[in-house]
Design a protein that fits this description.
This protein is 20% helix and 30% strand. By secondary structure, the chain is of the alpha+beta class. Strands 1, 2, 3, 4, 5, 6, 7, 8, 9 and 10 form a ten-stranded antiparallel β-sheet that branches. The longest helix has 15 residues. The structure holds flavin-adenine dinucleotide. Flavin-adenine dinucleotide binds next to strand 5, strand 6 and strand 9.
């Protein structure tokens, strides 16, 4: 995991690896703080490998946690959804966004010491509505590209009605923490190492199955390379996506 993170640090190239997010009272890790990091490049690498986040927020004194897609562009996370959705209706809302990558199940000799190897990020902040047409277009393309690189070139872009029906929210990466449980063996009680119980790691990866063509596909339309070649982690980004000149 550390090697992968180190590789991605050099691959992202957005910021010098020494640069860190400031620790705040909210982001200071109290539980197992040695697993925490505020390193920007590490945070970026986790955000760029994941594509599902959970957005926690409060409405009428009740908590909601919404799973949704996202994309990172520089120091901004873009979220999108229906304009009529609970979150889409509430720009200015305080949120807590998490992104989790599950790397392995850690199977210990005792039930108590079972664990998971993971890399996760938590972001606190206030979402703002993206209304500028160029930023909105770039953000929507970034979300598509983030999930399936190459797809935004292949698919028809959103028309005026579709774009209007889609709320785009931006969350600046300012109050951020990451936590990493490395892919290291379980830690059992000394006396349990004598038990004849299998212990170790069960690594997990996100791998695609075989593409299933839509029955209404036009004859002769082949599966494109961005589908057959889809993999996670995705190849390093070239840089922030921007809307083409003249895009609305
Ligand atoms: C896949 C997975 C499985 C987990 N399983 C368990 C479990 O079974 N039981 C359990 O207790 N915990 C589990 N954790 C850890 C859990 O996410 C919390 O870190 C832990 O419960 C401590 O929470 P806390 O609010 O008391 O931490 P605190 O240390 O008090 O949190 C303070 C601040 O530290 C940062 N922080 C805390 N946790 C994380 C995190 N995971 N990622 C990024 N920043 C973080 C946040 O900024 C947070 O506001 C798991 C995490 C992952 C990703």
């Amino acid at each position: 995991v550390e090697q992968r993170v180190a590789d991605q640090r050099t691959a992202t190239g957005d910021d010098p690896p020494t640069q860190e997010y400031p620790r705040t009272p909210r982001t200071r890790l109290r539980r197992l703080p040695e697993r925490g990091t505020y390193d920007r490049a590490t945070v970026h690498a986790i955000l760029d490998e994941g594509f599902l986040c959970h957005v926690g927020f409060q409405v009428d004194d009740r908590p909601y946690v919404l799973p949704t897609g996202y994309a990172r562009v520089g120091e901004t996370l873009y979220l999108h959804g229906s304009s009529g959705s609970r979150l889409g209706l509430r720009p200015g809302t305080d949120v807590c966004v998490t992104v989790t990558l599950l790397d392995a199940l850690v199977l210990a000799r005792s039930a108590f010491h079972h664990s998971m190897s993971y890399r996760s990020v938590m972001v606190f902040g206030r979402v703002r509505a993206v209304t500028d047409p160029r930023e909105k277009d770039a953000a929507l393309r970034a979300v598509v590209e983030h999930i399936v690189p190459g797809r935004s070139q292949a698919a028809r872009g959103g028309n005026r009605r579709e774009v209007a029906a889609t709320a785009v929210l931006a969350l600046d990466l300012e109050e951020v923490s990451a936590k990493i449980r490395a892919t290291t063996p379980p830690i059992d009680e000394d006396e349990d190492y004598d038990l004849p119980v299998w212990a170790g790691l069960l690594p997990l990866r996100q791998v695609p199955g075989a593409p299933v063509p839509d029955p209404r596909l036009l004859p002769g339309v082949e599966v494109p390379a961005h589908v057959t070649g889809w993999r996670r982690p995705a190849p390093a980004k070239e840089g922030p996506l921007t809307a083409p000149e003249g895009a609305a």
